[in-house]
Amino acid sequence: MKKIITTPKAPAPIGPYNQAILSGNTLYTSGQIAINPETGELVLDTITKEAEQVMQNLKAVLDEAGMTFENVIKTTIFLNDMNNFSEVNAVYGAYFSDDTAPARETVAVAALPKFVNVEISVIAVK
To answer: Which Gene3D superfamilies match (predicted)?
Structure first.
C-alpha cells in the first residue's frame, strides 16, 4: 500500500505527480528543483544557491516522512551541464557523511523542467 507524502515546506508538484510516495518503509521522492516553496520563485542566482534550495526541498519531504538524509540509500542527480558538477557535489556532500553516503548516479541531460540547472531525487528507507 502506498501513502502520499506532501508538505507545504517543499514546492507543490507542477504536474500529475506527488512530492513523494511511502511504500512500506521505503520513500521514493520525486525530483526536486530549486523552487522556493514560500515564494514559488526559482532560486537561480548561482549554481550553489540553486543546489542548496534543491537539498532543502528534499529535506522538507524527508522530514514530512519522518526521515533524514541518514535514511537515504540512493540518489539521482540530473545536471544540464557537467561543468556544474563540482559546485553541486560540494553542496550535496554537506548533507551526507562520507561513511554512510548513499549510492548515487549523476547524469547530464539536455534540459530540465523550467530550464533549471539541477534536479535531485532520493530513495530512503526507515
So the answer is: RutC-like
Determine the angle formed by the axes of helices 85-93 and 47-64, rounding to 10 degrees.
40
Q: β-strand 2-5 against 72-79: which pairing, if any?
A: unpaired
Q: What is the CATH number of the domain that holds 55?
A: 3.30.1330.40
Chain position carrying cell 512500506: 24
- What's the rounded Cα separation, in Å, for the pair 42 and 63? 22
What does the DSSP assignment read for 18-72? -SEEEETTEEEEPPB-SB-TTT--B--SSHHHHHHHHHHHHHHHHHHTT--GGGE
Q: Which ranges of 65-110 would DSSP assign to H, the alpha helix?
A: 85-93
DSSP at 90: H
Instruction: Count up the domains in the chain and report the number.
Output: 1
3-state secondary structure of 85: helix
3-state secondary structure of 84: helix
Taking only the tens place, the pLDDT of each residue in 30-67 is: 999 999 999 999 999 999 999 999 999 999 999 999 99
* Closest by CA position to 49, among listed 62, 60, 65, 36: 36
